[in-house]
Amino acid sequence: MNTLVINVVGVGAALCSMTSFVPQIVKIIRERDAEGVSLRMYVVTVTGFCLWVAYGLLIKSWPVAASNVVNLGLAGTILGLKWRFSGGEPPRAS
Fold first, then answer.
1. How far apart are CA 59 and CA 65, in angstroms?
2. Does residue 92 sit in helix, strand or coil?
3. Distances 26 to 3, 30, 50, 76 between C-alpha atoms, Å
4. Which DSSP category does 94 fall into?
5. How many other CB atoms are found less than 10 A from the CB of residue 76?
6. Integer Cα distance of 78 and 85 in angstroms
């Protein structure tokens, strides 16, 4: 298969994965509420991204490692926000 096609598919997959977390982060920050976020799911997700980063480093694939470092940061942000807002703090009036 053409290397360009393979790289375009990989970049597309990485960009979709990375951008998928942004709306959740924005929503949590805007509403100051993470009640609807599953703690278990994000613990597993963050663990999975840690393993993907390790895998990328072990096979010396910087695209795999780098894209998963970004995903790890974004998923970790959601996990941190979940812990921060887990007390059920009401949203602030604007």
1. 9
2. coil
3. 35, 6, 23, 14
4. -
5. 16
6. 10
- Evaluate whether 57 touches 5 at the Cβ level (below 8 Å): no
43 close to 79: Cβ distance less than 8 angstroms:
yes
| pLDDT, tens only, 24-53 | 999 999 999 999 999 999 999 999 999 999
Domain coverage including residue 42: 38-84
The alpha carbon of 85 is separated from its chain's Cα centroid by a whole number of angstroms, namely 18
Please tell me the pTM assigned to this model. 0.83
Q: What's the structural domain count of the chain?
A: 1
Q: Which residue carries 């970004």 as its tokens?
A: 70
Domain-embedded: residue 32:
no
What DSSP character marks residue 38? -
